[in-house]
Design goal:
Elements: H1 3-19, H2 22-38, H3 43-61, H4 70-80, H5 86-99, H6 104-135, E1 147-153, H7 155-158, H8 162-184, E2 191-196, E3 200-206, H9 208-240, H10 245-274, H11 279-301, E4 305-310, H12 324-342
Antiparallel strand pairs: 1-3, 1-4, 2-3
Helix pairs in contact: 1-6, 2-3, 2-6, 3-5, 5-6, 8-9, 8-11, 9-10, 9-11, 9-12, 10-11
């Protein structure tokens, strides 16, 4: 875990808990539920509970936590234990109240525990931030309009070997360069911001155009892969039961065909929308882009993860007229954010099923 990134996350969490008043709203729910348990025949307590729940649910539904990247949520989970925030916390409270509708006293005890844990966590965040400031530990952040790719390489995939890790970083560079040339007309040199996590998690700064295409492509690949994952699990179950590989080959072919068709569609759309070079290079680049997305899909099937985070642009002053470049970048950032919210870490455990070609 990178301490500067942890600092940034804790600042966001502290602001989130203060701005949305999650702890205060949860305290109100606890108190109104306590009143209802003490005086069950007093209808005003039920009304107050319903109103306080409505306010809490609204705050949790609009919480910025819901849009945090998968790795940010993993870090929060590591440092907080079983504490939940955002929509997951809303669902947890709803389940507690539904399960204990006849025994509100039991629900009260569980709500109290959630409140106590969250209050303790909030205090720990404040104390840690004070410590970071005293120690001079800076926060890791993005500049306005800057975009960051998070790319997780599982340790077991590279067997902790430096040479294998180097090869996988080269593969990532290959993927990014093909996307970059397709959308901007040229390759780029990518800056590694940090490397952290129990797995090798690289944070790389990428341009908005590359990020827009990559986030959209990753979202679509993951949508197809969710269906393939079910097929993969079925195939692996059959193998575990002793069914020979020759009998499950058609399942693998079908799964690979699903992903191949989606990648073919993505590549055509990217080339049609962005590429403006000569036809000879277009065919070569189209093949390179296909191989790049094949590599990405194969790696997602092997436990790799992708996430994208972008920092919004500042709002222009009231008297300023937004430039065409500003509006274009703002639209790309919005598109990146919409796709990034839908990118999630999937548990792709078990023998891989995708074997898409990775050579021209």
């Amino acid at each position: 875990m990178n301490v500067e990134r942890l600092h940034r996350i804790l600042i966001d969490l502290d602001e989130e808990l203060k701005t949305d008043k999650i702890v205060t709203l949860l305290q109100q729910v606890r108190d109104h539920l306590q009143n209802q348990v003490n005086q069950p025949n007093q209808p005003s307590h039920q009304t107050n509970l319903v109103n306080s729940l409505k306010k809490l649910y609204t705050a949790l539904e609009s919480s910025n936590y819901n849009d945090y990247s998968p790795s940010w949520k993993e870090i929060i989970s590591e440092i907080s234990g079983e504490i939940e925030l955002g929509v997951p916390l809303k669902h947890k409270i709803e389940n507690i109240l539904a399960t204990n509708s006849i025994t509100p006293a039991n629900a009260l005890e569980e709500i109290k525990q959630i409140f106590n844990d969250l209050q303790t966590f909030q205090t720990a965040i404040k104390n840690t931030l004070t410590g970071f400031e005293a120690l001079g530990i800076e926060e890791e952040d993005l500049d306005a309009g800057q975009c960051e790719l998070g790319y997780t390489i599982p340790r077991e995939f590279v067997e902790n070997k430096l040479s294998e890790l180097k090869n996988e970083i080269a593969e990532l560079n290959f993927i990014l360069n093909n996307i970059s040339e397709a959308v901007t007309g040229e390759k780029q040199e990518y800056k590694v911001k940090t490397i952290s996590s129990s797995d090798f998690l690289l944070y790389v700064i990428i341009g908005l155009q590359v990020a827009d295409v990559l986030s959209n492509a990753t979202e679509r690949i993951l949508n197809i892969y969710k269906g393939i994952l079910e097929i993969k699990q079925l195939r692996n179950q059959l193998k575990d039961k002793g069914i020979p590989a020759s009998k499950t080959k058609s399942i693998e072919t079908h799964a690979n065909g699903m992903m191949k068709d989606e990648i073919k569609t993505i590549v055509k759309e990217v080339m049609d929308e962005h590429y403006d070079g000569d036809n000879g290079r277009k065919n070569e680049l189209q093949n390179g882009l296909t191989i790049s997305l094949n590599k990405l899909a194969n790696r997602i099937d092997k436990g790799f993860n992708v996430e994208i985070r972008v920092e919004p642009l500042p709002e222009p002053e009231e008297e300023e007229e937004p430039t065409a470049e500003y509006q274009q970048n703002a639209e790309m950032i919005k598109s990146i954010q919409e796709s990034a919210r839908k990118i999630e870490f999937l548990d792709a455990g078990g023998e891989s099923i995708l074997k898409l070609p990775e050579k021209k």
